[in-house]
Amino acid sequence: MRAPSVLRTLAFRIVLVYVTIFAASAVALVAFTYWNTERALDAETDQTIDAEIAGLSEQYQRLGIAGLTDVIIGRSIRGGLGLYLLTDSLKRPLAGNLDSWPDAKARADNFIAFDYERHAGAGFERHRARGRTFALTGGFQLLVARDVDERYKTQRLFTTTLPWTVTLMLVLGLAGGALLSRNLLTRLDSINRTSREIMAGDLTRRLPLTRAGDEFDTLAGNLNRMLERTERLMKGMRTVTDSIAHDLRTPLNRLRNRLEGVLKHLDGDRPEAREVDAAVGETDTLIATFNALLLIAEAEAGVAREAMTPVDLPAVVEGISELYGPVAEEKGVSLELTPSGTARIEGNKSLISQALANLVDNAIKYTPAGGSVRVAVENTSGGIAVSVADNGPGIPPADRARVLERFVRLEASRNSPGTGLGLSLVAAVARLHDAKFELSDNAPGLKATLLFAGRTGRRLVPTG
Are 299 and 333 in contact (CB under 8 A)? Predict the structure, then answer.
């Protein structure tokens, strides 16, 4: 399993969201502050202009156009940030420090923003100004403005710098997120690698700890204690399993042998002989059930992982087909083996053989005389598929999950010999090998498929 890239980690996504929200919040805060500051400065400039217009208007009322002209000339000579222009009805300049009437459209309140040229040493500089026009009697026009070029340059600097600041903030945030994610990935990769080894059956492995003493170390410590307890329980289960295998299997086999010995000395037509023969059959069923339960327990507990070796699936299928060929022939069922490429997997050969034997045995058992059972090993895009298909009654889709449980037998198979553990064992073997076990329609009949991941190679030669 490939480790996720840094960009796909949860830590990186969290940092990305945080940096994006932080950058958006910072931009909104700075923009709001700048907007309020600009409004305040504009209001201050407008108040200054209105105050000057009020004073000039008073001078005009008292001294007339000649007196207003003298006042404007005096204020223009002083210099500073104040800008003035008095024109006649044709907008020809009469007084002021502006050369011409600006080509700018006034707002409803007669305020305008315009550019003008200002003397700077031996040359001119283009500046930004904000002012207000005022109409006088006789068609005269008065413009009173303030130079706001410094604020305008600050605004342009702000609007130019802000995007780069936000970009740098995002880049640094993403770089920090990538570094944080890389550190987390290193820790997670170590945990995942150890976890895969544990899942493969090595219960002695433990999650690594560091000196950081962080949340990962706390989690790893708790998991290690859990693994130690699990290992003790598994060892206890193995001990119990070995004890049962030794203390129960041997007496059962001895009982069966003794019953067979008694049966040899009895007349086959006597009732006692039939009872002993039935007891032998019941003993065989008990032994089969006992063996199946042990195999299922070993498979589900992962004990059999220790015996994993390279397994040639076609060779196993050939052996099962040869073993059950006479059984199929005796029942009048055709057992077919479909050729395919060689497929090797890492697995427990004994358990895989037992699982395939269960599938073939069930298929022959439920296929009527004249039907066929097809066993195939196929190389598919999803892996190596081993399938057993028959022409029997099949299993309804609603019951296919239930039949994988222990001791479950459908009504149609109540009168057939069996323990109800065959498909349970196959499912346990599939889980042990990380394979998929599927039951599907064969139209008519049932198709049971085990899908493994493995390697392919030479051709499989069909056997008769």
Answer: no
Give alpha helix (H) positions in 265-312: 271-301
Here the tokens at position 194 are 């150890």
Q: Report the C-alpha gap between 337 and 126 in whole angstroms.
A: 94
User: What is the 8-class DSSP label of residue 247?
Assistant: I
Reply yes or no on whether the pLDDT at 22 is more than 70: yes
| Closest listed residue to residue 425, CA positions, set 301, 291, 295, 238 | 295
Confidence of residue 386 (pLDDT cuts 50, 70, 90): very high
Asked if 325 and 436 sit in the same domain, the reply is yes
Residue 76 lies in a domain: yes
The pLDDT-based confidence of 440 (bands split at 50, 70, 90) is very high
Give residue 260's domain range. Answer: 215-299
Phi, psi of 181 (to 5 degrees): -65, -35
425 and 404 Cβ atoms separated by less than 8 Å: no
287 and 327 share a domain? no
Q: Is residue 168 part of a domain?
A: no
Cβ count within 10 A of residue 439: 20
Q: Are 362 and 419 in contact (CB under 8 A)?
A: no
Nearest to 392 by CA among 319, 305, 331, 458: 331
Has residue 268 got a pLDDT over 70? no
Indicate whether 236 and 313 sit together in one domain.
no
Domain boundary among 135, 157, 179: 157
Q: Please count the other Cβ atoms lying within 10 Å of the Cβ belonging to residue 227.
A: 18
Last residue of a domain, one of 122, 142, 157: 157
